[in-house]
Amino acid sequence: MTFTSDQRDPALATAVGRIFRRIVPLFVIMLICNQLNRSNIGYAETYLEADVGIGATAYGFGAGLFFIAYALFELPSNVLMERFGARIWLTRIMVSWGVVSAAMAFVSSPEMFYVLRFLLGAAEAGFFPAVIFYFTRWLPDSHRGRATALFVAGSSIAAAISGPLSGPLLSLHGVLGVRGWQWLFGLEGLLSVVVGIVAYFFLDARIADAKWLSDAEKSALIRRIDAEDEAKTEERGGSRWRLLLRPELLLFCWIYFAIQLSIYANTFWLPAIVRRIDGTGDITVGLLSSLPWICAVVAMYLAGRAGDRVGDRRPLLVVALLTAAAGTWLAAVVPPWPALLFLCVAAMGFKSASPLFWSIPQRGLSPRIVAPAIALINSLGNLGGFVAPFGFGFVKEQTGTVTVGLYALAFASLLAAASVLLVRERAARTPCPPVR
Predict the structure, then answer these.
(1) Which residues contact residue 9 at a Cβ distance below 8 angstroms, ignoring those fewer than 6 apart?
(2) Are 343 and 266 contacting, i.e. CB atoms less than 8 angstroms apart?
(3) DSSP, res 110
């Protein structure tokens, strides 16, 4: 199906530009807060062990419990988001996870650590797929890849700033009689609550509700997105929930699971890997740990633009996963300083893989199932966030090193790259005017 009437529509171009200036940056800020709250335990690990008695295995298990809760509550959360709308539901998610994250400042035992990590996963469940679904309802396919890349870049920005931010917060140890790691959890949790409240006044549930778009811009957006939805005719028959049992969705879940293994192994254990470098302290570890994520931000944006330009993101996704595999394997066999360099290469691969991946189900799935399908892929794929930190913690406690874990990550990325070749390209390319 072609869309010649919309290809040169200036109203569509200006509408897309407004979304990129108003909504995408807000989602990036929200994801930065999200990643800070879910991963700041990586910088508190040493202090949690000293003050609360949480060892490497217990730390890895608690870090992973987040993703068990996330998987359990993801699909129900997305169904409720469809009912209540993105404005209310995303605000609820942000405020609740901020409160739970701030409560981490009061952890006094491994059991309390487990409970709060589980509650944090339950509170946050639905956030990421809600944003991805939001893009499918507000942007044409030809711009979703770049929007998703910019959004997912928020996680790398958070990782890049979390080190420089965590060091000074940890250095507040003793101020007002409060430990440094308590300042870390409390202030970063409070930030999420504030941003969640602000988001309520910026988001709209539907294009028709957006007062910041003109009537012509609203009509152009709705017309284009409805036309793209009409072009997806292959999946109209049968029950909406039966369509979720398709083997293709299970393949998507596996590929995303492998991507998440690398992302969260590095999120939770990168500071520990960097600490192998002689002479590093809290500030130095924070600064050096930010380097892979800074490299990843640039790579993700370039990959997103390239994906939107070529349409079929599968070859780019294969390249990204092979890059992740090569960088991770090399990081396992060289000394600490070169290992940091190769982890930068690996991060450019596995972080770029995420937005490239999400453009594929967004592009090919029927609008009837896209919201629950995204939630299903994200919830099952995010179990990699449980396996990676727990597995790394177990390996480190048994062997005293994370080298074996790095080998396993490299193999998973390699297998995922092969799996992408089994994914069929389903949707036709839909041109769209450039953003102005």
Answers:
(1) 220, 224, 433
(2) yes
(3) H
How many Cβ atoms are within 10 Å of 68's Cβ, its own excluded? 18
Separation between Cα atoms, residue 143 and residue 323, nearest integer Å:
25
Distances (CA, A) of 182 to 35, 83, 114, 290: 17, 37, 17, 22
pTM higher than the cut 0.85: no
pLDDT digits (tens, 9 = 90+) for 255-280: 999 998 888 777 666 777 777 777 66
Long-range contacts of 242-247 (CB under 8 A, 24+ apart): 243/366, 243/368, 243/369, 243/373, 244/369, 244/372, 244/373, 244/376
What is residue 242's DSSP assignment? G
Q: Provide DSSP, 131-167.
A: HHHHHHHHS-HHHHHHHHHHHHHHHHHHHHHHHHHHH
Nearest to 257, CA basis, from 386, 123, 164, 137: 386
Of 314, 436, 363, the residue nearest 141 (C-alpha): 363
Count of all residues that appear for the chain in the document: 436
Q: Is the dihedral of CA 8, 14, 16, 21 positive or negative?
A: positive
Model pLDDT for residues 330-350, shown as the tens digit of each residue: 888 888 788 888 889 999 998
- Copy the structure tokens of residue 323: 């890059």
CA angle 233, 238, 239 (to 5 degrees): 120
Q: How confident is the model at residue 364 (pLDDT cuts 50, 70, 90)?
A: low
Tell me how many degrees the CA angle 372-373-377 measures, rounded to the nearest 5. 120
Domain 8-230+245-420 CATH assignment equals 1.10.3720.10: no
Is the separation of the CB atoms in 89 and 133 below 8 Å?
no
Write the pLDDT tens digit of every residue in 155-208. Answer: 777 777 776 777 788 888 878 888 888 999 999 999 999 999 999 998 888 899
Tokens at residue 278, please?
């002689």
